[in-house]
Structures are given as structure tokens and as C-alpha cells.
Write a structure and sequence with these properties.
This protein starts with a strand and ends in a 17-residue tail after the last helix. The strands form 2 sheets. The protein has a 6-stranded antiparallel sheet, with helices on both faces. 36% of the residues lie in helices and 21% in strands. It is α+β, with helices and mostly antiparallel strands and 248 residues long.
Length: 248
């Protein structure tokens, strides 16, 4: 069963929601669950012509820099340049990736997105896609970068939403216009996600080669809740396939 991403009516949403929950469930790690989610959406979402609707599907989750494995810490440090990372600094970490380019099918092969440091609101604002993602998911920048226990408890069970760029070409929120948007025919970008109980943000992002209207994007709020429910059960010892995070 496949779903037309340009229409994705209520019936499609309900059927897709059920299958996505089943797909994400039972994985041994959050990374494995994220891989299943990305693969499912990449394979099952199609355009009117029956071809895959997405060139690339990715899942991200924020982690404290000090809790990341050494290779991801090194990656984040290189992106920071001369700035010294704090152990509590959040990094937007690539958990899973599936796409039409061979290099898009392993998070280890990503050249620029394995662990993106988020040192301050001012610097994050200079990354327009990440800043807009946080805002459209209904979250405050400080809540994502420095989540307090009280705010986490308040938002974890409630806050999830959708990030949507209906027209990717020329959008200030989608970087790499020539080498990515134009080259791979990206027409719309759709993301969904929310806040987990540990105070981390998660987001699944679809880079679609078909036009995704606003009413379709809004229906992915339900899928955000499905993925959120699947991710809730994982703790620090079951995040990455390669092993536990360093103790927080």
C-alpha cells in the first residue's frame, strides 16, 4: 500500500498512521526505529505518477554534546571552529537517513549534518532551516537549547507539530538551492516532530519532489505523535546502534 503525498487525505492519514506505528515499534534502539520510519516514508509515499515522492528522508534528535560518542563530538567541534563546546550544548544529531543518492543512506557518510552544534539562539538563528523548524514545531529556542525540567515536563506530552515549506525553490529556509533543491528537483519540504520526555527535540524531514499543499502537511501532526510514542521508550543506553551514549 502506498500513499499519494500530493493528496494524503484523511483515510490515507489513518492507514499510514497505523502502519507507521507498527513499523517503528519493536526496534532495539532509537536509531533502528528512526531508520525504519525513514525507510517506510521513503518507500510508501508516492506522487500521482506512482514514483517515490521524496528524494531524501531524514530523522534528527538533539543530544547534549557531552553525551555524544567521540566521533560525533569531533564532528561537532570541527563545525564550531574556534569556539569551545560546552558539555551541555545541544547538537542536532542525524539519527537516520534514506534517499536516492547512495551517500544519503548512512548517517556516518553525511558530510555536514552528523551532529550540528546549537551553541546559542543567536547562532542558531543564522541557520534558517533549523531556526524555522523549531519555531514551526511550536517551541521556544531557549526551550530546545537549554530545557529546564519544569518546561520539559510541561511540553513533553503535548508539544508536537509540523514544519512546512510549500515552495522550496527560492525559500530562505532551505539552503543549498543550486546543488540540492535545483539539482534534485525538490519542490516542497515537510517536517514533523516534537519534544521528548528527556528534553530532546526530534524531527523527521521529507524533501519531496512533488508539491505538498498546506492541508496535506497539517495531517502529519498525527504521524508526529506516532513517532513520538515510539521514541518515548528509549533511554540513554538504547539510542545508537553502536552502543550507549556517554553518561550525561
Amino acid at each position: 500500500m502506498t500513499y499519494d503525498l500530493t493528496k494524503f487525505d484523511l483515510g490515507d492519514m489513518l492507514k499510514c498512521s497505523l502502519r507507521l506505528r507498527e513499523t517503528a515499534a519493536g526496534a532495539p534502539t532509537l536509531e533502528a526505529s528512526a531508520e525504519r520510519v525513514c525507510r517506510f516514508l521513503y518507500d510508501e509515499l508516492h506522487g500521482p505518477d506512482g514514483k517515490r515522492a521524496c528524494a531524501l528522508v531524514r530523522c534528527y534528535k538533539t543530544h547534549a554534546y557531552g553525551a555524544l560518542e567521540p566521533d560525533l563530538q569531533s564532528f561537532a567541534r570541527d563545525l564550531l571552529g574556534s569556539q569551545t563546546p560546552r558539555s551541555t550544548m545541544k547538537c542536532l544529531t542525524l539519527m537516520a537517513t534514506v534517499g536516492q543518492n547512495p551517500g544519503w543512506n548512512s548517517r556516518q557518510l553525511s558530510r555536514g549534518h552528523r551532529a550540528v552544534p546549537l551553541p546559542s539562539p543567536e547562532i542558531v538563528e543564522k541557520a534558517p532551516m533549523i531556526a524555522q523548524l523549531i519555531k514551526e514545531l511550536g517551541l521556544e529556542m531557549n526551550t530546545v537549547l537549554q530545557p529546564s525540567p519544569d518546561v520539559v515536563r510541561e511540553l513533553a506530552g503535548k508539544r508536537h507539530g509540523v514544519f512546512h515549506v510549500e515552495n522550496a525553490l527560492g525559500s530562505p529556509y532551505i539552503p543549498a538551492q543550486q546543488e540540492f533543491v535545483v539539482r534534485f528537483g525538490i519542490k516542497s519540504v515537510l517536517g514533523f516532530g516534537g519534544m521528548l520526555t528527556v528534553g530532546d527535540l526530534f524531527a523527521v524531514i521529507l524533501f519531496a519532489t512533488v508539491h505538498v499543499p498546506a492541508n496535506v502537511a497539517d495531517r502529519f501532526k498525527t504521524l508526529a505523535l506516532d513517532v513520538k510514542s515510539a521514541f518515548f521508550k528509549f533511554n540513554d543506553k538504547s539510542i545508537f546502534n553502536s552502543g550507549a551514549l556517554i553518561n550525561r
